[in-house]
Q: What sequence folds into this?
């Protein structure tokens, strides 16, 4: 077989390409059709009888090529099947951290592994530019630099972007250069974040990677082992930390109890807190116990206030009450409640 491969390496690649693009479980190609495709696409003439020998070689190399009931051959399995590629493409386009053109390129390259019949012209390929995405096309480059710094055990420097009153993205504090010890890279709610320790404030802060600019590796500073920091010391791994910090806020982790307005509210609990949430009934009422940082719980409870009620801790109940009261005062005149037709 080695002699066959050495003498026909280019032809083997051409046959594979044609099978990958023009065949699948529902579509088989005869040896003559394969020859015609190769001639038309690549200007190369291969004898029909050579095709059979090349297909045998590909089968020996563990490519899943099958012969049809009547005639023809097809590449029936690939690295990813159609449903897996659709899932991966969906994941790419649901991430706001991936710029539109890069998302399209990744989706196209994934879809290229399918036959022309399996390949889908997903509608979101056309709509991807309309999605509210990062404008930083260097996000993957930023991730590479941060990963390199972590591997080499070094700090990083960077400046951080924010929006001015005109809605323009500008460097925070007139281009102030931040120094931080990188801890972990995480993907949360469709955005990439860096959890990094800043000595100036003596704590771990989350940074949106697409807002970071001019990242550099600081050769003269040795990275701090994240497991020695108070924020991570009590956790077995970063996934446990993420379960307790669903919005990546750095607040105190507390145990909270919610009453649920109905069984449908369980899905909201499970979506955010997963298997760590305890759902139970008491006096025919439905409750949930969760553990998370209090700042994140505040925003989560405000978001799902129509479906859940905070029972404890008392500090969170008070915070939600005071915030809701301020919101009501801000909007009561606009809603016509005070001095209006309903007043």
A:
């Amino acid at each position: 077989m080695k002699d066959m491969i050495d003498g026909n390496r280019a032809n083997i690649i051409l046959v594979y390409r044609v099978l990958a693009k023009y065949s699948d479980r529902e579509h088989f190609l005869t040896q003559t059709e394969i020859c015609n495709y190769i001639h038309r696409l690549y200007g190369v003439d291969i004898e029909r009888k050579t095709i059979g020998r090349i297909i045998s070689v590909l089968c020996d190399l563990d490519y899943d090529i099958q012969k049809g009931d009547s005639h023809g051959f097809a590449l029936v399995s690939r690295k990813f099947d159609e449903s897996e590629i659709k899932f991966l493409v969906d994941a790419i386009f649901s991430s706001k951290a991936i710029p539109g053109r890069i998302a399209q390129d990744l989706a196209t390259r994934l879809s290229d592994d399918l036959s022309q019949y399996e390949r889908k012209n997903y509608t979101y390929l056309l709509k991807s530019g309309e999605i509210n995405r990062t404008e930083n096309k260097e996000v993957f480059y930023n991730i590479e630099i941060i990963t390199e710094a972590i591997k080499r055990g070094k700090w990083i420097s960077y400046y951080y972007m924010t929006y001015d009153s005109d809605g323009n993205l500008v460097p925070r504090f007139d281009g102030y250069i931040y120094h931080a010890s990188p801890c972990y890279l995480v993907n949360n709610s469709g955005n990439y974040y860096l959890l990094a320790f800043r000595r100036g404030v003596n704590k771990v802060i989350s940074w949106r990677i697409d807002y970071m600019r001019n990242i550099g590796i600081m050769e003269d500073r040795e990275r701090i082992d994240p497991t020695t920091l108070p924020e991570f010391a009590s956790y077995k791994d970063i996934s446990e930390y993420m379960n307790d910090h669903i919005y990546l806020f750095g607040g105190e982790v507390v145990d909270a109890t919610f009453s649920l307005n109905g069984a449908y509210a369980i899905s909201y609990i499970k979506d955010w807190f997963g298997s760590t949430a305890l759902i139970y009934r008491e006096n025919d009422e439905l409750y949930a116990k969760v553990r998370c940082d209090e700042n994140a719980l505040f925003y989560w409870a405000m978001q799902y206030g129509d479906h859940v009620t905070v029972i404890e801790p008392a500090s969170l109940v008070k915070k939600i009450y005071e915030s809701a009261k301020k919101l009501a005062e801000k909007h009561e005149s606009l809603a016509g409640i005070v001095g209006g037709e309903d007043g």
About this structure: The chain has four domains: 2-75, 82-130, 139-233, 253-331.
